[in-house]
Structure formats: structure tokens, C-alpha cells
Amino acid sequence: MPVKHPAPRRATIADIARDLGVSTATVSRALSGRGYVRDEMLGRIRARARELNYPLREEPAGSKVLLVASHAALLDLQRSQYTLHVLEGLRARAGDLGIEVEVLGYAHPAEIARLPARVPGRQGRSGLMGIILMTVDDDTIAQARLLPCPVVLLNDDDPLMKLDSVAPCNRAAAALAAGHLTALGHQRIAFLTKPGRRTIARRLEGVRDVLGPGLGPSHILEVDDWTAQAARARVALALQDGPPFTAIVAAADILAAGAIVAIRESGRSVPGDISVIGIDGLPQGEFLSPALSTIVIPMRKIGEEALVLMQETARRRATGEPFVPRKIELGCELVLRASTDVPEKG
């Protein structure tokens, strides 16, 4: 009578975790695609799963992501190092994952509806995974809600929470900057900004969270362009009738650089007469004179997380899981340098 051998036991997540010396939670994230796992570890886990004949979830259809911005935003991109760092993170992550990123511009929000047709063969690995929208207005977001493919907003968010989004926590970033100045003893603080974007409005809210009624209309210095030259001219104008403030929170490092130039040209010193802090954390801030205190935004990480979120959303759609839009906000870090100090007495 033939001997019956028991069927081989099916490998489990616990087996993979034990073999690699990692937690079962890490293996679960790697195999499900729900959550971040370092690329090197992700590869090891999936390779071991194949060796053990553990059933792997199929990748979602499509290997191309469209990165879409208005023509105006693309022109601004040429001088915006903030955005360049975000895109570097996105492209680096895309390379690790074998995803192709194509940059497209549009002139009018109505063009958004035609974007999926720009990528032929939407079924299979050569087709469209989804669209990442960068620096868009509300009309564009409304059009994007109607698209049949996954959409992630980059450095923005959907006020109706119908679309995924990844951005820094702009309100908290500005509150960190203003809080640093008040902790030093500054009471008269100006906010240097270019209005118009929802992300920048959040930074104004963060400053107001700290200063409250102390931030009056006369202490909001608005410029008409994201340039050091525009900031220099606006701060110079504010200083003509004497120093109405002892510190400035600039909505971007580039504006902070212009403010420093204007203060020094007026015969005053930074930070002796007026402290200046920026928001962005661009590398060149360290080489300003004086070196710029700033709130460092994890720019590359924003790009990376946008692509990870796109992949997860595509997987959920491919497997028929319910779609629940997610808004990811990343924390920021205060970096102190020489441009901020206690206010002079007197």
C-alpha cells in the first residue's frame, strides 16, 4: 500500500519574516503594497516570497505616470528649486520602481479630461497608472475629479477630499517659524508672502495661529512674484518710515534672501536690527550672509510619497477595493542659523 505523504505546508508571512529577520508587519506591507518599505528590503522580501512559492499580488496595470502642470507652472518650474527637489525625489523613486514619468503641460483646465488618451494601451504594463497634478487651481481639481484613472495632487490638496494628495504641513511649518521668533522675544513680526495659492494661505494661517491679532494688515507684506528682487523692493518700501517690525517670516527662502538684502541696504543689520526666517530649506540658504534660519520642508520625500500613494491607489482600484481618498501631510524641521536672534532692547 503506497505511503501517503502530507501535502507541503504553504509558506506564510511569518516564514518569510523569520528567514529575513524582519517583522511580520514589514513583510505584510511589502507584499500588500500598503505602506512604505525600503526598496532594498522590498526586493529581498519579494524574492524570498517567490522562492517559497508564496502567492504574490499582481502589480496594477500600467507603468507610466503623467506629471501634469499648467504652462504657467512649468515656466515657474524653471526658476523654482523647491519644485525641482520635489521632482528629483519623484523621479528617483520612479526609477527604483520601474515606472516611467512623463511631464505634460496644459493651457486650460478643460484639457485635463483628455489627458488619459495621451497614453495609448492603457491595459498592461505599458499603459497609464495614473496622473500626478502639480500646483493647480480649483477649476483643474474639479476636472481631475472626473478622470477615470487615479489622480494624486502634489504640493496641494482637494478641498472636497475626493482626490489623494501629498504636501508639507504648511500651517505647522509657518507656526514653527513664527513660534521660534516669539520664543526669542520678538513681538512685532511681519509676514512676507505672495498670495494666491492655497498652500501659501495655510502658511499665513500658521503665522496667525502664533501671533493672533499681533499680525495686523500692515505687517503682511505682499509681493507680486516669487523672486528675491520682488521681496527686496517690498521690504525696502516697508522700511522707509522706520522699522515697523523686528522680525520677518518669509513664505519662501527666496523671499527671505531678498528681505536680507533690503535690510542691509537700508543700513540695518540681520539679525541685530531685524531677524529673518524662511520656509523651504533650500541648500543655498546656508550660504547667504548671514546664513538663513529656515523651516526645512522634506521636498524629495514629497515627490517620493506622491508616487507611493499613486501605486497604492492603483493597486486598490485593480483589486476592486473601496477607494478612500487620503491626504498626506509631512512634518517639517526648524533649522537655526545666524539670521535670527533676540531683538535689540530699546
Structure in words:
This protein has helices spanning 13-20, 24-32, 39-51, 71-77, 81-97, 138-144, 170-184, 198-211, 228-238, 253-265, 299-318; strands at 64-70, 100-106, 128-134, 151-154, 164-168, 189-193, 220-222, 247-250, 275-280, 293-296, 327-330, 333-335. The chain is of the alpha/beta class and 346 residues long. It folds into 3 domains: 1-57, 434 Repressor (Amino-terminal Domain); 64-166 and 300-328, Rossmann fold, CATH 3.40.50.2300; 170-297, Response regulator (Rossmann fold, 3-Layer(aba) Sandwich). Strands 2-1-3-4-5-11 form a 6-stranded parallel β-sheet. α8 links the parallel β6 and β7 (220-222). The radius of gyration is 25 Å and the shape is elongated. The termini are far apart. Mean pLDDT is 87; it is low at 121-125.
